[in-house]
Amino acid sequence: MRYKTTLDLRFPNFFRFALLFAFNSLLFFIELFQLYTRVVFALIESLIYATIISKRRKSIANELILITGAAHGIGRHLALSLAQYGPILVLWDIDKEQCDRTASEVVKQGGIAYSYKVDVSDFDQVEQTSLKVRQTIGDVYMVINNAGILNCKALWNLTSRGIEKTIKTNLLSHFWTVKCFLPRMQQVGRGHIVAMSSNMGLYGRSYFTDYAASKFGVIGFMQALDDELRVTHNNNIVLTTICPSAVETGLSKIRPTRISWLLPVLNLDYTVNRIIDAILRDEHLVIFPYGYKIFYYIIRQCPRKVSQLITDFVGNTVEPN
Fold first, then answer.
1. Residue 86 domain-assigned?
2. Above 70 in pLDDT, residue 231?
3. Per-residue confidence (pLDDT) for residue 303, from 0 to 100
4. What is the C-alpha to C-alpha distance for residues 9 and 54, in angstroms, rounded to an integer?
5. Into which family does the record put it (predicted)?
């Protein structure tokens, strides 16, 4: 009798466990099927937008747009080109004289621009100037984090101060500007954050240890921020990460790759036009020219030795300083 009583007590528990397991398994496979269908539809949608239908360009007329690093190079050319679309530009740079010149050129073209001296590596300066902009001009709709420096030296030739300055300017400045401007974007339910990374943010090369680390960090920052905005239902704030190849900006000595027809050195005009097009179409991760996108996807799947052979064949695009 004792044996039968034990069976009577255990059988219902086993039966209950089996039913629960079967039910949970069914739910799992239903969710898996839902995931599969959503992935398929998302892939089809992405393929259509990539090959057949381009996203329409949005209007930025009368929108307040902040550009960091606006005194020289890409930042300056971005300001001059974006001015044609009718926004109100707020230009930041540590070089106030050249930043003022950029603003003056925008005004000569019929645009509106305000110039500020800001060291974007310094959070206090970013915070104080962001408050000043909000109080005197208005709410910033778009932040273009463009400020950057490039040492282009072997690690053992870099100073600790130089490394720290690169990380602060190229990476931490993104944290500072976003912390200052994102809360207001969340309040009004709209905004756009643009981060200038690089193909060196996708794979490291010699003489780019500090620079690559900062640009890898930018991509990681933007990906994590994108997910935070998604899970907190701030989907109306757009994030765009730009990853161009080597650009003739004067930051370093550029030399062409062995297959320049596929992996060219970019000129400023093409680079700026591509960036603006990506911004106006709300693109997410922008790797260009297209040859570098292919190059990136190939070498990240290859064993280390194979990647080294390929990159050695292609050649480096800079000479160390």
1. yes
2. yes
3. 87
4. 65
5. Belongs to the short-chain dehydrogenases/reductases (SDR) family.
